[in-house]
Amino acid sequence: MRHTLRILSRRFHSQSIRTRLLAAYVGLLLLGFAALTLVAGSQIAQAARADYEQRLLNEVRLIQQGLSAVISPGDGDTTLTDKAVTTLIEQYQTQLNARIHLYAGNNGGNGGNNHGAPAAGRDSFRDAPEVETAIRNGVVVVERNDDDGRRALFTAAALGDPSRDGFSPGVVQVSVPLDNLQALIWGRWLLLLLVFVGVLTVTVLAVLWVSGSIIRPLLHLRDSALHLSRGDLSHRVTLEGDDEVSAVGKAFNEMATQVQSMLEEQRAFASNTSHELRTPLTTIRLRSEALRYDDTVDADTRAQYVEEIDEEIKRLSALVEDLTLLSRLDAGRADLGQSEIDLVRLANSLIQQHQSQAEAHRQTLSLNAPNSIISIRGSLNHLQIVFRNLLENAIKYTPQGGRIVWTISAEADGVRCRIQDDGQGISPENLERVFERFFRADRARVRNVPGTGLGLALVKSIVDAYGGTVTIESAGLGQGTAAIVFLPVRAALTTVV
Q1: What is the model's pTM?
Q2: What value does the mean pLDDT take over residues 470-482?
């Protein structure tokens, strides 16, 4: 049994979603409607029988009244007008499709008096429940076999006054074939089945429509996924509505956009990386070949070549270190550290380290910090990378005689650092791209200004990893630049001295 159920389950799940929906819904509806039809049919059959028996009782009372009008009481007995009674009974039999028997009564309990009774439909009293009930002035419906052996419904009513002493009333008996009632019940069953078939048909059509409205968007999603798998990253799925499937389609389009952007960024990153690596390697190779094979190179030139090779090697090492840290941050594998670092002390140290460089450019480099210890939880190396890159950018892009101010302010939910310069600034079209990897706003001076183009990208990745924010502000070319770094309260602790 279990093996059979497992086979059926596998076959069911191997079908399409539309087939499974149709099978599940139609199966449940068949079971539900079948049970409802059986219960309703049973109730309808009982109600139809009760209604039919009540009508039969009403009819026998009408017949009783009609026959009583043509029967006149005599001196101690009942006289029946044979012709009138026979005619009336035949009319009732035709109208009701029933058999009617008239049983004559007596006036002294001396037996049945059938004088004047019609030949057809007249008989002596019989020992029948409905007749016995009628003699007691009651009316009842009884189901039993008739004289032909068929099932029938019988009822009877008295024609006289059974309360008179010594008087046995006449009784009219009506019998109707049970087939009449069965035909009525089967008619109602047929109507119920027609309603059941109609509701089931409408339900199946509704299930087909609903399943189609669900399957069609899924098919569009499948086609879009196939387009993406074939490399068509520009393809998007078009779905209408605000239902769950449309929400999946929107999420799919967002995913496709992100994948496309990520792949394009990776291609640009790979291209820029290869370019950044190729340039110093070419310089190193040319200088090393000259030192190795050119005997005409003098001692001063050799010393210059060695110095250039050393600078390019340092540049390559810095590039590799930056790329390694970026990859770890992207993968979420960088150790953020839990050391408490005094940000004010770190800022003073970095200011002193870059003071000589600023003085060489005749720049003013100053720190504006509160008289408090602002502790940052994290890695000293990461914080040095962030603020060293921001300071070096400010120095590189600030002309001689310029001013650079680093302001540190403690806030309720964290600490904010602002490094403001009055240098060359950034144009609005380049301001949104400053955090792109290898992006250099000043293309004309790209080889004259040292750097790899990864500084701000690395700063943003580190600050994001600590849950903070970094923004670059500039009013335009020649109007200076401000770098604002905010680290949240969980990374900063302030202690007033």
Answers
A1: 0.50
A2: 87
